[in-house]
Amino acid sequence: MSIEEDKIRSLINQGEGLEVEFKESYSSLSRSVFETICAFLNRKGGSILLGVADNGEIKGVKDDTLATQLDTLTRDMNNPNIISPTFYLAKDVVEVEGKKVIFIYVPESSQPHTYKNSYYDRSRDGDLKLTNPQLIASLFLRKQDGYTENRVFPYLEMDDFEEDLFDTVRSYARLARADHPWVKMSNEDILLSARMRLKDINSGKEGYTLAAALMFGKDNTIATVLPHFKTDALCRKEDVERYDDRDDIRCNLIRSYSRLLAFIRKHLPDRFYLEGSQRISIRESIFREVIANLLVHREFSNAYPATMTIYKTEVITENWNRPYNMGRINLENLKPHPKNPTIANFFKEMGLVEELGSGVRKMYRYCPIYVTGALPVIEEEDVFKVTIKYEEDNEGVNGPINGPINGPINGPINGPINENEKLILSLLEVTPGMNRDEIAISINKGRTSTYRYLTSLKNKKMIEYRGARKNGGYYVIIEEDKDK
């Protein structure tokens, strides 16, 4: 058996899919082969076998039509009225089981192509003719160099950004690293340091980027630079047709992160886990990664809304994506690739996301603890989808997992305190040392209301403020401290 025949048999055994297509073409060239060629050029490339039925049966190509079919392929691939831009393809004739099969290898092209003035794309279900302008725009985006986040807006000014968010960023950065240089930088210098002010090499104009607008922009700024931008948080535990609760989020990414996390805390149970000597929230560990992924790695140029939907037993997030790997992602085939590296790095500097790839590993680590044996389902296509299982409040779900742990979550939290105060206690259990502004953003409340909740908890001797007025933070008072 020749190497060529081996390869053909391997493709037939693999079956049709994203990168493999069969065409019978027994006595004449199937015209649909050009749709597949166009789709492969526009996606990830692939292999076409002429003379093989859809079910993998080898039919062969009729000997006296071989030359004509090969000539037609060559001629039409060089005809701009058929395939535009034209493209040269390598073709081989391989004998399998005494029958001739034409093997065509189609590489991924660096340009978008059309077949008879129509764009085609490839999915697992076959060739897809693109008629939606957004899908065509996404095709062009995949082929271009660079990132949407780096788009320069020369007329963006500091007044278009939320000034108080820079102090929040400094606080997060300080928590992540005490000597972080952002702590002493001006607002403008933070944006320069984060590469959110660039020069457009095509126009020569300099300005703040889409990344800057998305991180710090006021609501009106967001609506101006990216009118379709939104993230939809839905709870559909009971009413699956509409929703039980909803947060239509159209603000910048820092506030979006906090609102999505607040929505999760509102509707999902928590489980606390003792990892070594440190007590962690399993819910926070998982969904901080899920939410960061939803916001950081989406393709902002597409109007497809990012969604986070809480169902009865699972949470599903979806966002438009610029795919690099197609299909199910697991720890074995994980190949991290930054979709918006500037925004991703900014979140990392604030301590809100892990190094690229670490977030997926963290989900795989903690999901089986949140629900015994359950793993995250991560699927990368044009729409990036993550599914996380959870259990409603059954016995033990909101308590500790690996033994008794003293502290306010298992003790005084059941006392006369409101839901916002409980939320603050949970937050400080996971991230001690946060200041008022950080807490306000995390629970999606105003500074005045947050101060009232903090004062109430201090009066109940459940939290205390430690450190200097400008750089100190709040901490939960554990039972041992109260006894001293």
Describe the structure.
Helices cover 35% and strands 21% of the residues. It has 484 residues and is α+β, with helices and mostly antiparallel strands. Strand 21 (463-466) and strand 22 form a beta hairpin. Helix 14 (436-443) crosses helix 15. The longest helix is centred in the middle third of the chain and has 15 residues, at 253-267.
The mean pLDDT is: 85
- Overall structural class, as computed from helix and strand content, comes to alpha+beta
What is the distance, rounded to the nearest whole angstrom, between the alpha carbons of the first and last residues? 82 Å
Shape: elongated
Low-confidence stretches: 403-415, 480-484
Helix content class: 25-40%
Instruction: Report the total helices.
Output: 16
Radius of gyration: 28 Å
- Going across the major beta sheet, what is the strand order? 13-12-16-17-20-19-18
Number of strand segments: 22
Proportion in β-strands: 15-25%
- Characterize the largest beta sheet: strand count, sense, and whether it forms a barrel: 7 strands, mixed
